[in-house]
Design goal:
The structure holds 2 protein chains of 2 kinds. Chain A has 8 helices and 12 strands. Chain A is α+β, with helices and mostly antiparallel strands. In chain A, the strands form 5 sheets. Chain A has a 4-stranded mixed β-sheet, with helices on one face. In chain A, strands 1-6 form a two-stranded antiparallel ribbon. By secondary structure, chain B is α+β, with helices and mostly antiparallel strands. Chain B folds into 2 domains: about 70 residues; about 90 residues, no CATH class. Chain B starts with a helix and ends in a 10-residue tail after the last strand. In chain B, about 30% of the residues are buried. The chains are: A alpha+beta, B alpha+beta. At the A-B interface, strand 9, helix 5, strand 11 and helix 6 of A face strand 3, strand 6, strand 8 and strand 9 of B. Strand 9 of chain A pairs parallel with strand 6 of chain B, so a sheet runs across the interface.
Chain lengths: ~250, ~180
């Protein structure tokens, strides 16, 4: 026979264990752990209030299958920015990433993206994320508080990977159509020199790849502005992606 | 009789109106024959025909040739302003060209002593673009290190000038990625 105090102890133990254990979800669901979600602003200007998210099961989506297998801890292999420090993905950040991913057109979810890493601060303070041609994306702290919106930041990184997946002819076509030219520098290196003006973001001048990522990002969220500032890039994007190619929540 | 004259006129006209000039396909083996510091503008035009574009700068001028099939820039040749001799050229291989593959391009310059340089990674993106440079032989091959495809090949007058700090030499300690 079990004594009464032992019975009470067992009851309390069972009760508390059930409180902290992950919920049992069906095979077509996944468990969202209890977490606090901070207030944030989406790229369409909608403010999402802070809340305490309860533990629950959610149906597995295509986005979940794409994203959750790619969350990685630590530093990407051969990462050149050695002063940058790694961080861990929180439950809240993973949920935010999934929400952001699901409004980006699926054609940009490149299979060649093999790792989504979480790091504290970019060597360039304001930079929210960096992409590597070897299939990595690094997301920094500032991505989650940026007024630009996480979905737009992620779309920009996916645009880099879209550039990496272009065929050589497509890359060349984009570069020549938007005024980039190969040139032999006095130092005997070959450079792609930029067109003199018409950049939707200043950092687009640094490389044709950054220019492509900026233009594709703007094509997704604000194509009218792209059409006005860089009409040749707009025409190229329109031909490649069509006019319905937008972030699902974005306003034209 | 009138019908015969009309038919004759049509025949004569069709013979005298020149057909659309067929554009030449330039090959890399022809381009390789250009002699840096020796080939003249006239020789270049005699070999490749009239350029698709000409760009004038204060110290030099450039003749540009495009691929008639794709319309993409294929060859640009820089000339000293005086005497009008080839200073350097830049070739953008087509996908079907042998030198479009890195090994094919390196094979063209079998005797070259290349040093490997990598584009300095930007804070926003880390591309896998590299350059093989032989300063003495005067050759640069810019290529993608993941696909091993060549973006461009340049020839210039050999010498001892060092490449810029914008490109980092890849040493055995910092070997090329994804090899």
């Amino acid at each position: 026979m079990i004594e009464k105090p032992a019975m009470i102890f067992l009851f309390i133990l069972t009760f508390t264990t059930s409180l902290f254990a992950a919920p049992k979800c069906s095979p077509i669901e996944y468990a969202v752990k209890k977490h606090h979600r901070r207030e944030y602003v989406r790229s369409d200007g909608v403010s999402v209030k802070a809340t305490d998210v309860r533990e629950h099961c959610r149906p597995r989506s295509k986005g979940y299958d794409f994203l959750y297998s790619r969350f990685k801890e630590g530093i990407p292999r051969d990462w050149p920015h050695r002063a940058e420090k790694p961080a861990n993905w929180s439950e809240e950040e993973k949920a935010r990433m999934l929400e952001a991913l699901e409004i980006i057109p699926e054609i940009l979810w490149a299979e060649k993206i093999v790792g989504l890493y979480r790091m504290k601060k970019s060597k360039d303070d304001l930079n929210p994320a960096t992409s590597g041609e070897n299939g990595t994306i690094v997301i920094y702290d500032s991505a989650f508080t940026s007024l630009k919106g996480l979905e737009r930041i992620l779309a920009h990184e996916f645009a880099h990977h879209n550039f990496y997946s272009l065929t050589e002819n497509e890359r060349l076509d984009y570069r020549l159509a938007t005024g980039w030219k190969p040139q032999l520098g006095l130092d005997r290196n070959i450079y792609w020199s930029s067109r003199p003006s018409g950049f939707i973001e200043e950092d687009g001048k640094t490389s044709s790849e950054e220019d492509y990522a900026n233009n594709l990002e703007h094509f997704l969220v604000n194509s009218d502005k792209l059409k006005e500032v860089t009409p040749k890039a707009y025409a190229w994007m329109l031909k490649k992606f069509g006019e319905k190619f937008k972030l699902r929540s974005s306003k034209k | 009789m009138r019908k015969f004259i009309s038919a004759w006129l049509i025949f004569v006209c069709s013979c005298t109106i020149p057909s659309k000039k067929e554009e030449r396909i330039i090959t890399f083996s022809e381009v390789m024959k250009l002699d840096i510091g020796k080939s003249s503008e006239a020789e270049v035009i005699a070999t490749f025909g009239m350029p698709n574009d000409r760009i004038d700068d204060s110290d030099y001028f450039t003749l540009e040739y495009t691929d008639p099939k794709t319309g993409f820039l294929l060859l640009s040749v820089n000339f000293f302003r005086e005497p009008r001799l080839v200073q350097a050229f830049l070739w953008i291989p087509r996908q079907e060209d042998k030198e479009f593959g890195l090994e094919g391009a390196k094979a063209v310059y079998g005797a070259a002593q290349f040093k490997l340089f990598r584009d300095e990674p930007a804070s926003h993106s880390v591309s896998e673009t590299y350059s093989l440079i032989d300063d003495q032989a005067g050759v640069t091959i810019r290529f993608n290190g993941i696909r091993n495809t060549v973006e461009a090949i340049a020839r210039f007058e050999g010498g001892s000038r060092k490449p810029s700090s914008g490109h980092k030499e890849v040493t055995s300690q910092s070997s090329r990625r994804n090899n």
